[in-house]
Specification:
By secondary structure, the protein is α/β, with parallel strands linked by helices. Helix content is 45%, strand content 14%. A 5-stranded parallel sheet has the order 3-2-1-4-5, sandwiched between helices.
Length: 128
Amino acid sequence: MRCLLDTHTAFWYFEDNAALSPKAKAVICDGTNEIFVSVVSAWEIAIKRSLGRENTKLCSTAELLDRIAASGFELLCLEPRHVRPVETLPYHHRDPFDRLLIATAIAEDMTFLSADENVPKYDVKWLW
């Protein structure tokens, strides 16, 4: 299975946070699955940190990128095909980062791992 982690899902995994569902953790830890984190998540953290709204134990965007590399997860760069679905997504989210991550999962035909209760409202493969 090819899976895209929501930003909070990646943090919860790296922090071994109990908020990460057992099902999501099992999928992430299953070596037969391909796990991706989008560069959009790094961008989201950079923006939030610059606004003073970052509340994770991870101290920087650089540390997030280092953790992604060390984990063996694949960093997914933003491509034009990821942006296209945003235009037609319904407005269950106003957050541009969430919308772009969901659109990326749709464009890549990936399962999106997220605790966000709005995600199942979209036409995206979802697991939590």
